[in-house]
């Protein structure tokens, strides 16, 4: 059955008169698989945009157009079946007649791993990522990403891992090519309420102060 839902969200900044009003109108399923979204902004009308999304069992398309006389237009699409997915996005500036972005990606997914290859930054950067689940019981996961910048002829990489100490406590770690080591522990002490302790250190400059953070997330 077709249904159309609309809602508005308004927000005022704390420092009047530098306020901003945002309005979002959403229409679900005017036809099967189609969704329309209209975002309005006042007084900064350049933030307004209209978006159409279409989803099929094996494909999806999104068209995003700015609400200005010379709008920015973005189109993205993805197709996939049996664990293989291919997608891309392109952005076009009608004012200058130039492309603002063109990216593409290919991924291969199995129950215990995911591998992906991306061409981003206007085809200037090639990225390869791999994620492997070691143990579904503890959600133990290792991941790695390698990137190559064609214009700069530079390579970067990072590796990381995740381990669940118990159903409510998760530990994560990451090592980057620049020698930075980061880790965090996160505990869900109440449903949807989290406390997170994180830290980061530069292994090449241990004499410098390390970064330590504490975050508390509360949800009713």
From TrEMBL:
One example GO MF annotation: voltage-gated monoatomic anion channel activity
TM region(s), chain numbering: none
Family according to the record: Belongs to the eukaryotic mitochondrial porin (TC 1.B.8.1) family.
GO-annotated cellular components: mitochondrial outer membrane
Domain of life (superkingdom): Eukaryota
InterPro entries: Porin_dom_sf, Porin_Euk, Porin_Euk/Tom40
Protein name stated in the entry: Uncharacterized protein
